[in-house]
Input
Amino acid sequence: MKNIKRSFLLIIWLLLLCSGMVDAQNNTSKPKHRKEAIDILLNDTFSFVQLRNDPVNAANLSLRINPFYFELDGLNSNLGYDASIRYRIHNKFAISAEYRGSYFESIEKFGIDQVGSFGGPATGATNFENFSLNGDYYFNSKLDTNVESVRIGRYRGFWLTERVTALYQLQYGLRLGLQYFQTYISGNQIAFSGYYINDPNKTVVNFGNEPIGTMMEENIISIGYSVTARHDLLISNKTLGKSKVMGESCLYADILYAPAITYTNVIMPNYEYLSGEKYTDFNVNNGIPKSRFGARIGFDYSDLSIYGLTFGLETGFRPGPTFTSGLYVMGKFGFILNMKI
Output
């Protein structure tokens, strides 16, 4: 009887041991299958295909429209708009044309009935204008690689980024530009003097800092240096879609020279003893200082995809009445359209 009982207990113990071994085997296989499932999900989510990585053949024709433009200027701070077109030729040259106008200017014209004015419309906007033609010659181009952090989208509430080795083109260039610049100058800022246009003796009358004004017009030549970097990387993932690093960044510095600076005539009341008329026309072109040299540095960024954003910052000293009065800081923000032709 005792032998039967011992045999029964031995059988139960063996059954329990086998059951434990089976459970242990199942427990070790479950994490393995779970890990395989996670690996499959991660490989599907974070594997990428490069669709394009060719900055040399990126877009070469761009149209920029900047509805927001500001300039803090020593003479006439303003808010306005900016538009330009740019074309790159065989990645060796680039030509561009740009126009700026204003919505608002910090200085208003003085009407003739208020004391005086320049020879032209006595009321209304001061007709700030800035038009330029620019050319770049890229004398040195290098193609290299760097690691970019590409934001690829949101996954389960988290922003995901991917480290991708991308090609970039680095170009060193020489710049040449022609600029027409026009703005209003107040007598409160710069001391005026001039002579009655029909006075044979050209007797100079000093107006001092009276509340009068004139329109300054100048032609500016710029010569400078630039460093440009271009990226054109496009990657794709079947779960998260496409992502890109496409852009052009440019640092530049220019020396400015204005061979021509002119000031329009000032029309003044209360000088009947000179002209015999209610309003007297004075030539002030030689009665206001002219500082012909200046300099500027700037940064410009633009997207290289079909459409995107663009912005720029610039500061320097523009030619004008005095060197210090030409100090300005400019910024612009807008949109860009690109194509490859």
